[in-house]
Amino acid sequence: MKKNVFIDGEYGTTGLKIRNILNSKNVAHFINLLSLDESEKKNKAKREAIYKKTDILILCLEDALAKEAVKTCKAVNSACRILDASSAHRTNINWVYGFSEMKGQAEKIRKATYLSNPGCYAMAFVSVMRPLVEAKASLQTIPVTAYGISGYSGGGRKLIDSYENKIPGKSMPAPFAPYALSMDHKHVAEMQKYSLLSEPPLFMPAVSTSYRGMLVCLSFHKAVLKQNKLQAGDILSILRPYYNKSDD
User: Fold this and answer.
1) For 9, how many CA atoms within 13 A lie in the half-sphere containing its CB?
2) Could you tell me the mean pLDDT of each successive run of 10 residues in the chain, 248 residues long?
3) CA 144, CA 186: separation in Å to the nearest integer?
4) What kind and span of H or E run contains 46?
5) In this structure, are residues 120 and 90 in contact, taking their beta carbons and an 8 Å threshold?
6) Alpha helices (H) in 174-216, listed in sequence order
7) Cα separation, 29 vs 195, whole angstroms
8) SS (H, E, C) 112-164
């Protein structure tokens, strides 16, 4: 039996990409993709009506709107399963974190009613740091520095426009543009929680002129590696078997 799927925020960058995936031949015969006309996307009554017949709701909204959508959906359709692409619920204990490679996480994801999609920078960071901390508990307390650079499409429609459309009176964005210089990037709490670190990492992100793509680097001081009896080869020997045996 097909499942009714509704993408709330289907006309944004992320929503359009998910719609394309769900419309592919490999997926389309499993689901019935519901939709609202773009002119009706802010119509509360229309959204509630579509929530009522939705089996799986995918949220591609800003954090505040995602929280409001969850509240509304719960009120009209408590059986609906919700996947949130925003950062609104990633550290919420009532939501399952959608990183299937973490030990035991794939089964939790299969059973989840509320599933939070990992952040891009956070997934890259956690994918390295989590296996290291699980293998060597002493790494839980070490200071960690991370640098990240991503394409501009991850910033949504406004950032895409600023890179692709010349605005009169404004200069084009820099080829390499650091941001979140106050060290409070919204992914940091997520990075700390799922890496099992006792302190938040020092994280410095930047945007480049590439449309998409991402590179995240973790930096460990030599003294830290020496103290924990680790070399580069030891790190690889921890990461390889972790992902060879991952659930998914």
Assistant:
1) 24
2) 92 89 80 90 90 96 95 96 96 96 91 95 95 91 91 80 75 78 88 95 91 90 83 87 72
3) 17
4) helix 44-52
5) no
6) 188-195
7) 37
8) CCEEECCCHHHHHHHHHHHHHHHHCHHHHHCCCEEEEEECHHHHCHHHHHHHH
Catalytic member of 60, 80, 120, 217: 120
Question: Cβ(214)–Cβ(121) under 8 Å?
Answer: yes
Closest by CA to 196, choosing from 114, 100, 128, 104, is 128
pTM for the full model? 0.86
Strand partners, 46: none
Burial (CB count within 10 angstroms: exposed 0-12, middle 13-18, buried 19+), residue 204: middle
Residue whose structure tokens are 């921890």: 238
Structure token digits, residue 228: 């924990």
- Map residue 236 onto helix, strand or coil: helix
Known catalytic membership, residue 120? yes
